[in-house]
Write a structure and sequence with these properties.
The complex is a heterodimer of chains A (416) and B (375). Chain A contains eleven helices and seven strands. With 416 residues, chain A is of the alpha+beta class. Chain A has three domains: 7-128, Butyryl-Coa Dehydrogenase, subunit A, domain 1, CATH 1.10.540.10; 132-246, Butyryl-CoA Dehydrogenase, subunit A, domain 2; 270-390, Up-down Bundle (Butyryl-CoA Dehydrogenase, subunit A, domain 3), CATH 1.20.140. In chain A, helix 4 packs antiparallel against helix 5 (114-125), helix 9 runs antiparallel to helix 10 (367-374) and helix 9 runs antiparallel to helix 11 (379-390). Chain A is globular and about 75 Å long. The N and C termini of chain A lie far apart (67 Å). Chain B is an alpha+beta fold. Chain B folds into three domains: 7-122, Orthogonal Bundle (Butyryl-Coa Dehydrogenase, subunit A, domain 1); 125-224, Butyryl-CoA Dehydrogenase, subunit A, domain 2, CATH 2.40.110; 227-372, Butyryl-CoA Dehydrogenase, subunit A, domain 3. Helices cover 51% and strands 16% of the residues of chain B. Chain B is built from eleven helices and ten strands. Chain B has helices spanning 7-23, 26-34, 41-48, 70-83, 90-103, 106-118, 226-262, 274-302, 308-334, 345-357, 362-372, and strands at residues 123-126, 141-146, 149-160, 167-174, 177-184, 190-195, 204-214, 219-220, 264-265, 268-269. Chain B has a four-stranded mixed sheet, covered by helices on one side. A four-stranded antiparallel sheet of chain B has the order 2-3-7-6, with no helix packed on it. Chain B is globular, with a radius of gyration of 21 Å. In chain B, 56% of the residues are buried. The chains are: A alpha+beta (416), B alpha+beta (375). Chains A and B meet through helix 7, helix 8, helix 9 and helix 11 of A and helix 7, strand 10, helix 8, helix 9 and helix 11 of B.
Amino acid sequence: MSITTTQDRDTPEENAFRLKAREWMAGKLPPRIPGQPYMDWDDKELVATDRMTQRVLWDGGLAGITVPKEYGGLGLTRRHETIFGEEAMPYRLAWHLGNNYNIVIPVMLAHASEEQKQRWIPAMLRGDHIWAQMTSEPSGGSDLFGLITRAEQREGKWLINGSKIWTTGGEDSDMGLCLARTDPSLPKHAGLTMFMVEMRQPGMTVRPLTLVNGTRDFCQEFLDDVEALDIIGEVNGGWAVASTQLAAERAATSRGWYIGVGASLPRETIEIPDAPIRLARELGVAETQRARQIVGEVIALEALRELVAQRAGKGVDAGTLPPTIGGVASLASSTLNQRASELMTELAGPCGVSGPAEGGEPAQGIDRVWLFRIGGGTAEMLRNTISERHLGLPREAGPGKDVPFNQLRTNAAPAT
Amino acid sequence: MDVVLSENQTLLQQATRRFVEARHTVSQTRKLADAGETMAKQAWADCAAQGWIGLFVPGEHGGMAAEAEGVIDAAIVAEELGRQVYAGPFASNAVAAFAIAKSGSAGQQAQFLPSLASGDMTATNCFAGTGAQDGLAPTGLTATRSDGGYRIDGAAGFVENAAGAGLFIATACAGEALSQFLVAADHPGVTIEPLRALDLGRSLAIVRFDGVQVGADALLGAPGSGAAAFERQLQVALVLQCSETIGLIDRAFEFTLEWVRQRNAFGRPIGSFQALKHRLADHTAEFEAAKAAVAYAAKAVQNNAGDAAIAVSIAKSQCGKQGVEIIRDCVQMHGGIGLTWEHDLHFYLRRAVANQSLLGTPAMHHERIAALAGL
């Protein structure tokens, strides 16, 4: 089914904005190329294109639609951003700068000093910097606030030592948010501080990670006396900043990480995905009962993913569903996606695990499942959140929140 | 149901819940089952007085179809009835009233709709044949021209609320095409063979047609036009079945959550163990997808939208599988008490399994989706 805009819902002012954006975009933005990934950090040309696009938006007075005017933005609403995105459907936007507008700007607006906001936000809108989030660590993924990268003050400088991982675009980023432990004698949430660091400096080693599907979007960093440039928020007040950061990530993921990518537009009819039908035909199994059952079920699962997301959005907007339903919809989406992926693998049988020697890697049923159930917080963490915050079930028993970090069992010095 | 309801729909939902919780709880279903009875005619007439069947019946025949969104409103009622494993002939009558209101002649409407709306008479649809792969197509009956009318032969399986019904809607193969007929239950040659049902609040039967001779005036709609009408009726029946399953899950999940909060083991509520919490989170997600699918299907069928056929099959796929999966796990989380006859859970599970298996299993609906998608 075709993607439609929501122009019929525009106010006169919104419609004027839409027409202005539409007229401006023509000829200035790069075209959207079907099949081109929204993000591919291995494609250095594409990263450069996106930096340039951000600059073009700034020069055209269309950067930072929802960012307050005093920091270089337009000070408009999410609705304007949606309109802008709809009009940008034929074009490619600055998607490699997603961290800037989805994460770092909201974090700075909430926690940075006036001076910091004046300095860094307009620079992001100009496309001067790409920001990275250095949050997770090799020693622990889900237990984020148990992180062990430490920062110490020496000769008036904050020096950071440790390792960070799952940093999207780390290699091509200019600046980074880095959460580090500044006081291990405090309970684990309390002794953290949010630093700003320059990504290119002595002591910082950035190494891309290759995932099972061949992508190289994530990096690992090794920090050896890396010097912090500044602090966002208070020393030992990093937990509050990181909470805003995580909330911004969840919000961006649920409304659509890439501005102008139509997935969040409401659909009027059930869309029939082409892939399972094509695969059944290509493999010559379209007349077998099991293949037909699988194709039908995959179509159902794809439709269910769309319907459950729409329902959550509509219910939250109308106030008839609590905001926690967003997590429920995410879990549903990843579960339904996994089932569809497993069914496609069954449908393909041996043809799904092999292919022509000169072809790409046969990855039927591999990539989608892993990314959706681990990336951005595992499905297990989501289940904890849903059961505790949405269903109101009691917390799992665990070590007290008041125990100093350096006395927690896994973090204490080994017994002698 | 949908996350946004009209004011009238909210009132209907609240009124139905109050009525059912006061008069027709699962305990009532248990009493009827223990006594081996089905709902008495007067009790059904009291229910019909709530206006449930009238949702499909025009004002001149005693209903309020003009003020209703029949399919969506009936789905709201079905969901409330599911919450209490209601044991009366709601869905079968609603679909029959829908069929007659949509396809019936003026005379047929005047003859049958008022008594269906008031609950004085019940009618039911013969949807399926009698085999294990039946449920989605009217494979059991044939009609041949005879004596200026038709002769109907064959057997319809799994007919709901046939015992006590005054009228059957029979869909029969007449050569290549399908035709629908209205046949009185006491018509010569019609016999009802009651079945013992897993669902303790549901009456199922085989209805046999042995040389049943009817006049042309028994035709519901034009001869040979039965396929499209049958499909629409099946769609409404599936929306009501799936909505009922939503109600079943909703209530069973509600009292399972209460249980895991109150029940203590090893010094803490069992609802604090991840082994249970993670499953409950998974069920919440699957249930949400089921609700989204049914709300969409109800609207699509109400509007006779182009994707209504595929929408009901998607709803059935998710409700059929998850209704059983979730309620079976509710039993598991209750432990031993969930296995007792005295606990209400088995009433919920029995109906969920029945709803999964009747009117096409999920696997049959997957095949139907593939066909509808052009494969």
